[in-house]
Design a protein that fits this description.
single chain, alpha/beta, 7-stranded mixed sheet, 5-stranded mixed sheet, globular
Amino acid sequence: MQILDNVYMVGSGNISLSNRHDCHAYLIDGGNHELALVDAGVGLESNRILSNIRAHNFDPENIVYILTTHSHSDHAGGCRNLKAETSCGIVASASEARLMEEGTDEELGLIIAKKSGCYPLDYTYPHCKVDKIVRDQENLGVGNYQVRAICVPGHSVGSTCYLLEQDNHRALFSGDTVLFNGVIGLLNCYGSSLREYRQNIEKLSNLDIDALMPGHGLFTVRGGQAHIDKAVEALQGLFVPQCMGQ
């Protein structure tokens, strides 16, 4: 499903584009036969994501990076399958890379997520080697574009958003850090921290974001900064902001 000139949604359990446990997975067409995938889904029926990429007349072999926002199963569980089918490199922040490579089920939030009905009880996390550790504010080249990594711990220990600027239009792939209407991804599991949210969320202020592309729920192609600012303002107040799942 095409969203912007060079951005496509190629996976989503919310709208049955792919396995029902998948987050939104976005494809960036950088030109010059270079693509990047933002998040990889849960790793069940990964072939559906690849089929969606091909349906838009792109070759999955041209994926240079899978840009993971964090290590939770619905976002990074598909990395191993997709890497096996392409020549892509897996990108993650340092703390999330450790979890993707060797994290325990408790550290990955998988035990409590299964108890909460988020995944099948027999689901096993497919650990995967990370090829590139991305630093806060580092730029990654994808064809004609630069994608900036913005590390915003809070939802998880090293959650990372990715900023794409193209033709004076800015899109932020926010994972579960901030969602439509200023909802945040604070969870009751390892690595999710209100304190970290308060300390890091202002990195997303003053970015003049047009399109907000979160990992779940609604997205918007205009006025995205207003949704981010709502979360920033709420985290400066006394009461906990609205969280995903509420």
